[in-house]
Amino acid sequence: MMLFVNARLVDPATGLDEPGALRIADGEIAEMGGHLTTKEHEQVIDVKGAVLAPALIDLRCAADPGSTGVQGVKAAAHAAAAGGIATLCLAPDSGDGLYRPEDFNTVNAAASNSPVRLHAAAMAVNSRNGVTEIGLNLRAGAVLVGDGGAPIADSRLARNVLAYAGGFDAWVSLRPEDPGLSRDTVATESDLAMRLGLPARPALSEAIAIRRNTALVNLTGARLILDRVTTSAGIEAALEARSNGLEIAVTTPISHLIFNTIDTGGLDARFRLDPPLRSEEDRLALIEALARGRIDAVVSDHRACLDESKARPFPEAAPGSATLEALLPALNTLAQDSGLSLAEALKPVTCGPADILGLDQGQLTEGAPADLVIFDPDAPVVYGRGKMQCTSMSAFKGRRLLGRRLITVVRGAIVHQMEN
Amino acid sequence: MERTGFTYDFPRDSLLSVGDLNPLDVQMIFERARHHFDAARHNEENTRTLAGLTQIHLFFENSTRTQASFEIAARRLGADVVNFIPGNASISKGESLNDTALTLAAMRSDILVVRHRAAGAAAHFARVTGVPTINAGDGAHEHPTQALLDAFTLARRWGGIGGKRILIVGDILHSRVARSNISLLNLLHADVRLCGPATLLPADADRWGVSVFHDIDEALEGCDAVMALRIQKERMTGKLTPSDREFATLWGLTHQRLERAAQDCLIMHPGPINRGVEIDEALADDLDRTVILEQVESGVAVRSAILELVTGRAPNQSIADMRTHDVDDRRDEA
């Protein structure tokens, strides 16, 4: 049993934000309230006014179940624990891709000694442009299936994937990008990208793909996750489809809520991301959508790249950035800068993704799993300074953010604790 | 129910679609088929009702079983059978379908049996030639004799089909057998269910008077018979379904799965079976459950009956004072 006192309890599921205490027992939230009396043999932790919220759920993290290095699942799981994330969902394109039910043996093995809860999504299409063994993958533990970030060009295949997966009532995650328009490009079309001579795609490429994919959802009755919507037109297209009653979830990467295409101006490979960074108008539209509760999940979109794959000219560098330890402070900073309540800002990293995956965690309720994060929302931090779990290249390196993580609790046990 | 003082003649000179039949037609086919079925089982001498007729088989798609079944049915009744194999003949020399049809008509054949990959092909031949035509499969459209032999097999076992729950599982989308069966079983008042991967079910199949399932264990609940359809290997490579093992695991019929079905649930398959895919080995060999060979046996009897009826050669062709328990028992209950 453990009792946290002097906490600011924040529950995005109910909008609760008030001082109080919270007791955990047997891996669950046992009791919460204004004042709780200490019980015998109970560990009492005075969090001194810090925020106590449900630990984060990250719906998209690419980490290799077969690697023991910086790109591996173990490294990601420890970075997640340090980042206040208790549930990590591996992307279908993790490692060499999770295609077959056998591939989940490695994931399940990694999950059994991971500090955080580990889930994984399966690839829905194979290298021969066919549907994968979606039924068997779901039985093996896949929580959803997707294209793994490589948009499906053939509309008939996309239809078959949606129909087939829909037969199992599974979520299908598709990357909304027009394959033709985006092929071989590394940036979003803009005056700047043109001056830099970068091969670029129009931002509209995203909305075009969303319109096709949502039309196919209408045809097949599947459930679609729009994997990393990053443009204003994309958000609009998604909303329109949703207003027609389609079951569509929208995710957005944390990086695209913080950075824009100007950040690519120095041709710094750290900002080589996929999807590429967008215009400031797009970024503001994403924040607006976040404030209006239109984004179901903000994802870390973490992808640790080897230094050598980033030590190249911008267009040739590997896309991706380490973000697990930036997710919470970046969202907290965004909330403070844009006047969002903390509960609203945390919704798409707690109860939002929990609702999609049907998880019990992600909320402060008696009986819910004791997956918690405690952090000081007003403490300034500089990403990359001090002790970092993930040392891989990050767009956030040197970024000043608010919110120092103190304690992460998973299944009622402290898995990460900041010194002091 | 008795229909005394009422006579009914089999009105058709072709069999192109189950949709052309009414319950009385089906009744007549079944009664005559039952005669042939019993006669064959008791090694009775065949009546040469089709003597003097020439039957031409026009199989543009490969077929062994259906073609043999039609041939045996016709020969037993004394007809001459000519197998016209378009692949080896004039078609490959560039002759158009219509020319082929007119050539055959000019040979004064009495019956055409047609199988072709295009929907509507048999009807097209019937129209162009004016010769009584039996559809032995036109694309994914219809295979009426298969549906009739399936229903006959069940009716012979059960006495009637009305009210029975019958599940069709597998590749419904590309199956003419499924389409004909759905029409016929609905006509006979069965409770028809379909099950398969969403990619192998036709869009809007729920409007076909059937219940549609993706989960076979749910679909099997209380079923009196299950028709497994053949999965074409070329459709198992990921375009529509990912693999044999996924299909077998999620939709394959096993003894264990059948525990949810009715106790004496019958297993049917139009053949040839992919053992271990649609039906697992042990179940395929379980003669208490499968009626697959009985379907083949019924096939000859049903086709004999149809050949007689469309040529007007069936003895006592008109039915009078007929008991219609096969088709009408459910109506009686209601």
Short summary:
The complex is a heterodimer of chains A (420) and B (334). Chain A has 420 residues and is an alpha/beta fold.
Keywords:
heterodimer, A: 420 residues, alpha/beta, TIM Barrel, 14 helices, 29% helix, B: 334 residues, Rossmann fold, five-stranded parallel beta sheet, four-stranded parallel beta sheet, 11 helices, 16% strand
List the helices and strands and how they pair.
The complex is a heterodimer of chains A (420) and B (334).
Chain A: E1 2-11, E2 16-25, E3 28-33, E4 43-46, E5 51-54, E6 56-62, H1 73-82, E7 85-90, H2 103-112, E8 117-120, E9 122-123, H3 134-140, E10 145-146, H4 155-166, E11 171-174, H5 179-182, E12 187-188, H6 191-196, E13 200-201, H7 204-220, E14 223-226, H8 232-243, E15 248-253, H9 254-258, H10 280-291, E16 297-299, E17 302-303, H11 307-310, H12 327-338, H13 342-346, H14 351-357, E18 372-382, E19 400-410, E20 413-417
Parallel strand pairs in A: 1-4, 1-5, 6-7, 6-17, 7-8, 9-10, 10-11, 11-14, 12-13, 14-15, 15-16
Antiparallel strand pairs in A: 1-2, 2-3, 5-18, 18-19, 19-20
Chain B: E1 2-8, H1 23-41, E2 54-59, H2 65-76, E3 80-84, H3 97-106, E4 111-116, H4 121-129, E5 133-138, H5 144-158, E6 165-169, H6 176-187, E7 191-195, E8 211-213, H7 216-219, E9 225-228, H8 244-251, E10 266-268, H9 281-284, H10 292-311, E11 319-323, H11 325-333
Parallel strand pairs in B: 2-3, 2-4, 4-5, 6-7, 6-9, 7-8, 9-10
Antiparallel strand pairs in B: 1-11
Helix pairs in contact in B: 1-10, 2-10, 5-6, 5-10
Explain how this protein is built.
The complex is a heterodimer of chains A (420) and B (334). By secondary structure, chain A is of the alpha/beta class. Chain A has a single domain, classed as Metal-dependent hydrolases (TIM Barrel, Alpha-Beta Barrel). Chain A has helices at 73-82, 103-112, 134-140, 155-166, 179-182, 191-196, 204-220, 232-243, 254-258, 280-291, 307-310, 327-338, 342-346, 351-357; strands at residues 2-11, 16-25, 28-33, 43-46, 51-54, 56-62, 85-90, 117-120, 122-123, 145-146, 171-174, 187-188, 200-201, 223-226, 248-253, 297-299, 302-303, 372-382, 400-410, 413-417. In chain A, strands 1, 2, 3, 4, 5, 18, 19 and 20 form an eight-stranded mixed beta sheet that branches. Chain A has a six-stranded parallel beta sheet with strand order 9-10-11-14-15-16. In chain A, a hairpin with a 2-residue loop joins β19 and β20 (413-417). The longest helix of chain A has 17 residues, at 204-220. With 334 residues, chain B is an alpha/beta fold. Chain B has two domains: 2-142 and 298-333, Rossmann fold; 144-294, Rossmann fold (3-Layer(aba) Sandwich), CATH 3.40.50. Chain B is built from eleven helices and eleven strands. Chain B has helices spanning 23-41, 65-76, 97-106, 121-129, 144-158, 176-187, 216-219, 244-251, 281-284, 292-311, 325-333, and strands at 2-8, 54-59, 80-84, 111-116, 133-138, 165-169, 191-195, 211-213, 225-228, 266-268, 319-323. In chain B, the strands form three sheets. A five-stranded parallel beta sheet of chain B has the order 8-7-6-9-10. Chain B has a four-stranded parallel beta sheet with strand order 3-2-4-5. Chain B is globular, with a radius of gyration of 20 Å. Mean pLDDT of chain B is 89; it is low at 321-334. The A-B interface holds A 126, 128-136, 139, 157, 160, 163-164, 166-168, 219-220 and B 197-199, 203, 214, 237-243, 245-246, 249-250.
